């Protein structure tokens, strides 16, 4: 009954061997007593048997338990992902040997799986590092544990500075429809997925900037409308202009000629107007060269004598299409002049591995900054709403970004990021 109630193998061995030893000792004592052995000799023999029995029980228990202890140490090493520690059995055959061989095979199997997993994880993280899309990894405690270099596109600092930061600190907010980023003015779509790494749950956040997709859709709609309008207006203006010029040559009166000439001039102005807007629907073919910043701003300074240009040039050359990039700055300086600016501070420097060009004027600022880059939108009485849209189109063809905001006190600051290295294929 006691054997059946034993909860440990140690107790089972101890009770079993002790019971068997006591039984054998009693049988031997009875036999020796019946054989007429003196009582003193009988007691000495029994004491010797008890000592031998205690040694046997201890040795037997240690031999069996050690096999299990070694197996437990092997399992502990496996739990710590140490697959080079193996337990060796004292028994060359039997169940104990089979147990240790099975544990050894399990270690080899897990080691192969771990090597394969580590290789896949290494390739995955390498791939993540190459992506331009910001990707963040949070551990089971929702602390930032990894991010790729594109993290700086949002936070302007390496991700290591935000290590162990919570989503809330990073401006991530969970809503009923998913995660939302409140840190920037850009619109980001956030996809979340969970995975297991080193036995712990991790969460992968992939942030996709959907501003460009929205702008591309809007621009495509405007381009289609402009193409249709341009086609119809040209078809109407061309015969009117030809007829006015033909009639003007036949009219004798100065007043009639002047009226027909006015009609012809307005037709040409409308055709020029349509041609300018049609440029929004054309893909730019950039010719990238090294543009000297000193000479370019000297030229632009001569073209804008009414503006005082205060330049701080920290980068001597940029890789860009000189014609297009000059047109961008001409448009921006023209906007500053029309905003009654007297001075424009221009600073060219390196930031986050890119070229940052800022133009800060002291004009009256912009009333509505939400629709600056919407085609045909303008706050100027005689504006056409094409200049800033054209500027952004050029900058984005250079794989750059442009941002415009009002200064706290007075004027506007335009910030342009351009790649520091030449583009391999700018048309893509």
TrEMBL record:
CDD domains: HisKA
Domain Histidine kinase as annotated: residue spans: 228-422
SMART domains: HATPase_c, HisKA
Enzyme class: transferase
Positions in coiled-coil regions: none
Domain of life: Bacteria
GO molecular function: phosphorelay sensor kinase activity
Protein name in the entry: histidine kinase
Organism, as annotated: Pseudoalteromonas phenolica
Lineage of origin: Bacteria, Pseudomonadati, Pseudomonadota, Gammaproteobacteria, Alteromonadales
């Amino acid at each position: 009954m006691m054997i059946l109630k034993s909860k440990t193998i140690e107790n089972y061995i101890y009770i079993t061997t002790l019971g068997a030893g006591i039984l054998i000792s009693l049988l031997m004592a009875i036999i020796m007593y019946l054989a007429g052995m003196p009582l003193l000799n009988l007691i000495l023999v029994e004491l010797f048997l008890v000592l031998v029995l205690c040694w046997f029980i201890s040795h037997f228990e240690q031999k069996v338990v050690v096999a299990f202890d070694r197996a437990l140490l092997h399992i502990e090493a496996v739990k710590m992902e140490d697959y080079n520690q193996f337990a060796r059995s004292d028994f060359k055959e039997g169940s104990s040997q089979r147990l240790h061989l099975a544990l050894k095979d399990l270690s080899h199997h897990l080691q192969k799986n771990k090597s394969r997993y580590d290789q896949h994880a290494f390739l995955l993280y390498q791939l993540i590092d190459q992506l331009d899309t910001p990707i963040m990894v949070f551990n089971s405690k929702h602390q930032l544990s990894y991010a790729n270099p594109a993290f700086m596109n949002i936070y302007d600092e390496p991700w290591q500075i935000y290590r162990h930061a919570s989503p809330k600190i990073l401006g991530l907010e969970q809503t009923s429809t998913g995660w939302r980023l409140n840190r920037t003015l850009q619109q980001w779509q956030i996809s979340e997925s969970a995975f297991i790494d080193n036995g712990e749950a991790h969460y992968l956040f992939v942030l996709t900037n959907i501003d460009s997709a929205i702008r591309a859709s809007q621009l495509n709609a405007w381009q289609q409308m402009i193409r249709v309008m341009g086609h119809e207006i040209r078809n109407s203006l061309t015969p009117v202009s030809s007829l006015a010029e033909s009639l003007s040559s036949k009219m004798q009166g100065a007043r009639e000629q002047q009226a027909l000439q006015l009609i012809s001039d307005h037709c040409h102005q409308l055709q020029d107007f349509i041609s300018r807007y049609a440029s929004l629907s054309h893909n730019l073919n950039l010719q990238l060269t090294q543009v000297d910043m000193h000479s370019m701003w000297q030229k632009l300074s001569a073209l804008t004598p009414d503006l005082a240009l205060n330049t701080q040039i920290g980068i001597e050359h940029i890789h860009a299409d000189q014609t297009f990039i000059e047109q961008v700055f001409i448009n921006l300086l023209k906007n500053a002049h029309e905003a009654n600016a007297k001075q424009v501070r221009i600073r060219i420097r390196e930031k986050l591995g890119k070229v940052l060009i800022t133009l800060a004027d002291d004009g009256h600022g912009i009333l509505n900054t939400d629709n600056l880059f919407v085609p045909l939108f303008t706050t100027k009485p005689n504006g056409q709403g094409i200049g800033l849209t054209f500027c952004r189109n050029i900058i984005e063809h250079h794989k750059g970004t442009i941002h415009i905001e009002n200064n706290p006190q007075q004027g506007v600051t335009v910030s342009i990021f351009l790649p520091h290295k030449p583009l391999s294929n700018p048309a893509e």
